């Protein structure tokens, strides 16, 4: 096994050299399977070493018995106004990116969508949405709950706009990124905003294709819940930067069979070299190690049988507040 890895590594380094000579983008050089798959991302490019060496990586499997109730966690806030942008088949994923001023000008100037509250100490600005999905219904999501994977997951990314100038600048900086994860469950009736995205899929059949999406509400993608789980992790594709505060919402939204079918018709490559269908674009779960997963779900008060199912971060109260009232 180690020999094989060493061999692959040499091969990849060789390929990497060639690639520099050919000035091809690194982006073309990682995949979700084979010798350029997740186990090798950190070996392909020295700038991606965290993908193999990092100890705060994402996604993770969320184990209910590891959840810690934290009474300091507030509800998440995401602005509800609509924005326009581009949906792109990148060959790795389907991505919606908020229009910059040039793109937004189709629709007039647009107000940025702020993301704040929850576990966040700063105000973040919405940047893009990534879609991960399986080629069959058993797999697709990156985050899993008690080992259960969903057919798809939508990740909403924002950057810390109080500290940093833009998304790419924030990617490798402290407290740079927030990732809001929404798990997708198969259902008969889709979330309406999700449909606005999947309605464009026919126009982005091949890698590199993009289409304009008008007036999407990011907040409208969210399920109807204030409950979430949060932990510190990384981006789930190279370069695996460990700068992401993850917020996984505790309720799925719904996607139909037809929408999943439309996603699975997308191709990774161009019309003359379509390569494989786009899908199964999920990174396997990474070790949690000693990271806590906090939640604002107070199982003590939400469980009807009164049994505490979740340990708490409530500290013991050593000091009772004294009365400051002067009588
Ligand atoms: C805005 O986005 C378009 C489409 O992605 C791109 O071609 C253009 O260079 C961008 N403009 C700026 C100022 O970033
Ligand atoms: C988002 O935050 C910026 C910076 O504080 C603010 O100017 C803007 O009004 C906020 N957007 C909304 C919709 O509240
Ligand atoms: C992002 O901000 C950095 C730092 O201000 C700047 O150097 C860089 O050109 C910006 N990148 C984009 C894509 O706007």
TrEMBL record:
Its EC number is 4.2.1.-, 4.2.1.1. Residues 28-297 form the Alpha-carbonic anhydrase domain. GO terms for molecular function: carbonate dehydratase activity; hydro-lyase activity; zinc ion binding. SUPFAM superfamilies: Carbonic anhydrase. PANTHER family: CARBONIC ANHYDRASE, CARBONIC ANHYDRASE XA-RELATED. This is Carbonic anhydrase-related protein B, isoform A. Belongs to the alpha-carbonic anhydrase family. Coiled coil: none annotated.
